[in-house]
Amino acid sequence: MDNFRNMGQGINFPKNLHRLNPFLIFLITFFILYLFPEIKISSFSLANFFPILVFLILFIKKESREIFVEKKNILIFWLVFIILNLLSIAFSPYKSLAIMGAGRIISLSTLLWIFFYLFKNKENWDIFLNFLFYFAIFSSLLNIFLFIFPSIIFKYLSKLYLHSVIYPRLGFPFLYPNTYAFFLLAVLVILLFNNFDIKQKNIFYFFISIGLILSGSKGGLIFYVLFSILSFLYFKNKKEIKYIMPMTIIFSIIFLFLWVPINKNKILSKITLSLNKNVGQSEAIKETYSLTEYKKLSVENRIDIWEESIYYFFKNPLFGYGPLVNRYKLTKMLAHNIFLDFMIGYGILGLIFLITIIFLITKKILKVRKPVYIFLFSYFLVYSLIETLFFNGIIDMIFCGFLVKLINEKNID
Question: Is residue 413 part of a domain?
Answer without folding.
Answer: no
